[in-house]
């Protein structure tokens, strides 16, 4: 086995790890990245499939942010084009855009009732474009509350039950607040001023980000087979390591699950191809009433691509148990799991040259801009403390 001679080790080649690696390399550090998968880019990895379409192996991603500094950062490593994501949901045989808007009201209510409900919503939430479903569920007007309850029963509750494997009442409120209700006919999944997709690919973005003479990337390396923590000290291949280690994997697994497994949800994708020009009205559509799967992503529309037929992926959520080739995608945030994570974080904080971060290391669901912001904050912290 090769002797480790780098200054810094990064575990994980996703967005967080790659950004930190680039920063450290530009600070004159020799950086090595260990990635257990056979590719760079983490869950943002994309590739051209057998039908000539650019597809994303781990589910749909677009970069969106309100922060120009984050947008300027990604422009250093790839060209980007504007892309406004549209999403939808189907139940009772009808399609509606998501976030739910006045088109939703028109689709599922008789004309007269729809008109009165829209007027009530505009008056009750005057001056506001959106509200969370929780806010609307708590409104004193029975018609407004009834509308939110209808959406909750038809979409939020069944989708949440499939996606998270627990009752909606057990899920952290932040999850239910992710998709708001609109009080207009406006469509579009995000409201951020910067909404873009790469001109070439996310994988090209990562290639450029990691293209530095002081960065070495090693794929197919299972870090937990070579890295151990004993007596607040990091050991690599059995030898004490004094350099900085940035760990972006699951924190419970780093410490041998001594406090039990943190709960994650995983995904299984069924990849399909149809000889038709279009499969569904939007690139990403949720199917809350269907058995097993939650949504379908049609990659011919993400981004818009020319080609015969269409490639798409059907998404099946399932519990994560640490099995080989299974990925921990979404942390299940409950009061119990957050307390459990804090116990693991306390262990990590006892190791002075260890930094745990990223979606898994922080046990947080991050959008790409949030992950990038977190990575840049880590970089600033490393500069302040200095790295060995």
What do these coordinates show?
The chain is of the alpha+beta class and 388 residues long. It is 31% helix and 24% strand. The chain contains twelve helices and 22 strands. The chain has helices at 15-26, 68-75, 102-108, 111-124, 133-137, 142-164, 173-176, 202-209, 251-254, 335-349, 358-361, 368-385, and strands spanning 8-11, 31-35, 46-48, 54-56, 63-65, 80-82, 87-91, 94-98, 130-131, 181-182, 194-198, 215-219, 227-230, 233-236, 239-240, 244-247, 264-274, 284-286, 295-298, 310-319, 330-331, 354-356. The strands form six sheets. It has a seven-stranded mixed sheet with strand order 8-7-18-19-20-17-21. It is globular.
**How large is the count of helical segments?**
12
Structural class of the secondary elements?
A: alpha+beta
Largest sheet: 7 strands, mixed
Mean pLDDT: 93
Rg from C-alpha positions?
A: 23 Å
Globally, the shape reads globular
Strand residue percentage:
15-25%
**Fraction of residues in helix:** 25-40%
The end-to-end distance, rounded to whole angstroms, is 24 Å
**Strand segment tally:** 22
Q: List low-pLDDT spans.
A: none
The strand line-up of the biggest sheet is 8-7-18-19-20-17-21
Q: Which features characterize this protein?
A:
388 residues, seven-stranded mixed sheet, 24% strand
Please write out the topology:
Layout: E1 8-11, H1 15-26, E2 31-35, E3 46-48, E4 54-56, E5 63-65, H2 68-75, E6 80-82, E7 87-91, E8 94-98, H3 102-108, H4 111-124, E9 130-131, H5 133-137, H6 142-164, H7 173-176, E10 181-182, E11 194-198, H8 202-209, E12 215-219, E13 227-230, E14 233-236, E15 239-240, E16 244-247, H9 251-254, E17 264-274, E18 284-286, E19 295-298, E20 310-319, E21 330-331, H10 335-349, E22 354-356, H11 358-361, H12 368-385
Parallel strand pairs: 1-2, 1-16, 2-12, 7-18, 16-22
Antiparallel strand pairs: 3-4, 5-11, 6-11, 7-8, 9-10, 13-14, 14-15, 17-20, 17-21, 18-19, 19-20
Helix pairs in contact: 1-12, 3-4
């Amino acid at each position: 086995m090769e002797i480790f001679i780098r200054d810094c080790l990064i575990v994980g080649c996703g967005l967080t790890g790659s950004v930190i690696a680039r920063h450290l390399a530009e600070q004159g550090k020799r950086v090595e990245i260990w990635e257990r998968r056979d590719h760079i880019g983490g869950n943002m990895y994309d590739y051209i499939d057998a039908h000539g379409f650019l597809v994303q192996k781990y589910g749909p991603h677009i970069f969106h942010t309100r922060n120009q500094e984050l947008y300027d950062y990604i422009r250093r490593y790839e060209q980007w084009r504007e892309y406004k994501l549209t999403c939808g949901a189907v139940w009772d045989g009808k399609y509606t855009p998501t976030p739910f808007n006045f088109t939703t009201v028109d689709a599922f209510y008789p004309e007269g009732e729809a008109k009165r409900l829209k007027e009530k919503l505009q008056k009750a939430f005057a001056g506001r474009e959106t509200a969370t479903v929780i806010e609307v569920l708590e409104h004193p007007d029975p018609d407004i509350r009834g509308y939110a309850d209808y959406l909750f029963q038809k979409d939020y509750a069944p989708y949440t039950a499939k996606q998270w494997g627990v009752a909606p009442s057990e899920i952290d409120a932040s999850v239910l607040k992710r998709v708001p209700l609109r009080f207009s006919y406006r469509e579009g999944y995000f409201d951020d001023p910067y909404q873009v997709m790469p001109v070439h690919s996310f994988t090209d973005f990562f290639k450029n980000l990691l293209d530095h003479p002081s960065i070495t990337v090693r794929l197919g390396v299972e870090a937990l087979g070579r890295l151990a923590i004993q007596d607040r000290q990091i050991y690599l291949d059995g030898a004490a390591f004094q350099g900085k280690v940035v760990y972006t994997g699951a924190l419970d697994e780093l410490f041998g699950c001594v406090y039990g497994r943190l709960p994650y949800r995983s995904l299984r994708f069924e990849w399909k191809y149809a000889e038709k020009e279009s499969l569904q009205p939007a690139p990403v559509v949720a199917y809350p009433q269907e058995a097993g799967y939650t949504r379908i992503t049609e990659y011919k529309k993400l981004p818009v691509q020319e080609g015969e037929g269409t490639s798409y992926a059907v998404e099946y959520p399932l519990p994560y148990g640490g099995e080989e080739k299974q990925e921990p995608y979404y942390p299940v945030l409950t009061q119990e799991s957050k307390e459990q994570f804090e116990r693991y974080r306390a262990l990590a904080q006892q190791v002075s040259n260890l930094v745990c971060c990223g979606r898994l290391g922080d046990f947080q669901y991050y959008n790409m801009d949030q992950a990038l912001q977190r990575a840049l904050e880590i970089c600033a912290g490393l500069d302040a403390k200095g790295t060995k």
